[in-house]
Structure formats: C-alpha cells, structure tokens
Amino acid sequence: MPRGKAIALLSGGLDSLLATRLIIDQGIEVIGLHFITPFFGYHQKGREGEFQNQWRQRHGLEVRILDVSEGFFQILRHPRYGYGKHFNPCIDCKIFLFSQAREWMEKEGADFLISGEVLGQRPMSQRRDTMRIVERESKTEGILLRPLCAKNLKPTQPELSGVVDREKLLGISGRGRRPQIELARKMGIQDYPTPAGGCLLTDPILSQRIRQYFREHPNVEVREILLLLVGRHFRLPGGGHLIIGRKEAENERIQRLAQRGEILLRLRAIPGPLGLIRGPVDEVSLRLAGSILARYSKARGAAEVEVRYGRNPDGGDGILSVAPARDEILDLLRFESFPEVPPSSAGDEGRGFGSVPNGDRKNSGAREDSRFGFAAPGLSGGSLDEGPLGAAREDPH
Ligand code: SF4
What we know:
By secondary structure, the chain is an alpha/beta fold. The protein has helices spanning 14-24, 48-59, 69-77, 90-108, 128-137, 157-160, 178-186, 204-216, 222-228, 248-257, 283-295, 327-333; strands spanning 5-9, 29-36, 62-67, 112-114, 144-145, 232-235, 241-244, 263-267, 275-278, 305-311, 318-322. It starts with a strand and ends in a 64-residue tail after the last helix. Residues 40, 88-90, 93-94, 125, 199, 201-202, 394, 396-397 line the site of iron/sulfur cluster (SF4). Residues 40, 88-90, 93-94, 125, 199, 201-202, 394, 396-397 line the site of iron/sulfur cluster.
C-alpha cells in the first residue's frame, strides 16, 4: 500500500526523473505529467502511446501528456513577470504549469507535487525569491516538493506530516551537473532522456521570430507556430509570408502544415526546396517568392529558372520564369530583419488571401520592381540563415 500519492512534472530531462525516483523509492505512488506546447515537447504529439510505454518500461511510471498550447499562448503574450534573455516568460511559465499540475493533483486525489528544480540552477526561475513567487501565484505553497534541493528549502506539508522522509531528500544547489550525474549512476539510470531540444523560446533566432509574430498577430494558432519553426522566412510586399524548406524533411513538414488554398511553389524541372506563401499575394509578391525559392536551389547561378506554383492541394499548374534573387533582396525581406511592431498597433494582416493573378500564368508579364530587381541574378554567395535550430537552449521548465 503506497504511503501517499504525488504528481510529478516531467520535463523530459534528467532532473525531474531523479526527483521522481527519490519519491518513488520512498514507497509513494507517482503519476507523471508531461506538458507540451509547440515550444517544448511537441515532437511527442501523435506518439503519446510510444512515449508512455517508454516511461512504463524504463522507469515503471505512468505518464500523462498534456497539450497546454492555448493557455500557454496567453501567458506568452502578457507575462506578468516579463521575459528572460529571449522570449522566455519563465516565471509565468512555471506559475502556469504548476497551476495546471495542481488542478490535476486535485482531480487525481494526490497529496502533493514533485518538481526537478534545483535552487540556483536557472538565473530567472530557480532563485529562492522567484520560487516563492511561483508557489504563491500557482497556489502550491506547502504542496510543491523539490526533492533534489529540498534540504535548502522550508519543509513542505508531505515532509511535515511524515509522508515523505526529509532525511532521504537532497540539498543540491547551483548550476553544476555532477551531483545529478552521480545520483543517476547510483540509481542505475543509464539511458536517461535529454530534454530533446530544450525550450525554443530560449533560442536566439527562433525566439525573435516568434516574438515578432506574436506582436503582429492578436490570435496565433499552433499550426502557425509550427511553421515558424521550420525553414527560412521572408515577408512579401503586401503582407504575404513566404516559408522555404531547407531540406527534404522541412519540405515535407511544410507540405503537411500547408492549409487548403495556400500557395505552394517548387522548381519546375529540378528537385529543390518547397515554398509556401501565406497571406495576401499579388503578382509582384508571387514572382518575388519564386525568385527567392530559385535562389535557394541548385539553379541559383542560372539567369532564369522556371518555378511551378498553385494552390494547395490541387494547384501547381502555374509557371513563372524568374531570376534567382540577389542576396541583398534576401536580407531586406528576411522575416527577422523587420523592425518590431509595437503590440498596441498590431494588426492581423497576413491572413486570408488577396488575389493570385489569373489568366495565362505561364511566363506572365515580368513586371519589374526596382526595389526587388527581378531582372538581375547578381549572386555573390555570402552567409545565409543556416540552422537556427542548432543554437544552445535552456532546458524546459
Ligand atoms: S525555458 Fe523552461 S521555464 Fe522558461 S519558458 Fe521555456 S519551458 Fe518555460
């Protein structure tokens, strides 16, 4: 008979696993909660069963996956305690997740919550003062147990009532990882999970892109965020948004995420990137999109390239002849190059479509625009926005 019941917040990393094990080893029943949003953990969406089986088999733990994207978007837009170095509202994020976990705790008839936090490990949300704020605001004072650093903190209710033996908890603090790795070794945990990419809101490039998008769009959907996380992004004149895959996997993802009626572009005769235009599009922006797409293909040195385009899912009959775009055009239109729009003046442009040129689309009139210089290939190489996903990120939660 278990001595009590707890809900553990599992970020997917080592610390929350260790914290959970410390409590399970005291004979307490634990259920894991794994929160996901497009910014962390979303790769588990659609493979929940596999994820749960892994945890059951490896650690004997029942885990629930909770998609909290909608609520998270609200706090991301207006975090009471502000952002960290990037677009990461860590204190509000914790308040939100612990509040959700508390509700689950009550529903499950559990006695307390477990978190893998370590005092002093994170500059923003794992300081003594911010930990107290989080407990107060999420109404988890006295029921939120942090087994890895409990001895540095005031005893919680399960410790005071004797459900949890405080002597068997730890007093880890600071940013070092050695105590956790040593503990994992002692517990025989070898194949511990990594946080699988961490939180994208701490990625310097992606977070900037996401922040701009939130500022400019009062309502944001999960699909839009998923699109922001792949490929190269450009703004088109008139408010359109062009996304170009950087590799086959991204092309497939963009294709999967494209909505009916949105415009897809591909090179006509050679394999290469897939482009997607969202929002208003006219002939100038369509040709510009084609020229940017051509720039990121093997034909980027050609004087002229044929690009096929059409509305998803049935289109693809239109053909454009364009010169690959020059680097300065790319720099000018890159999504992140635009000055940020203050939140108060944000509109919801970029949704719904304007007109796509009709009639004979094949080689349709090459309208020149001096700003975008269609006619001149003028390629000079240069550094491009390769791989923002490779940047270092903070662990989720
Ligand atoms: S870094 Fe962690 S705490 Fe901060 S916003 Fe991301 S998931 Fe939340």
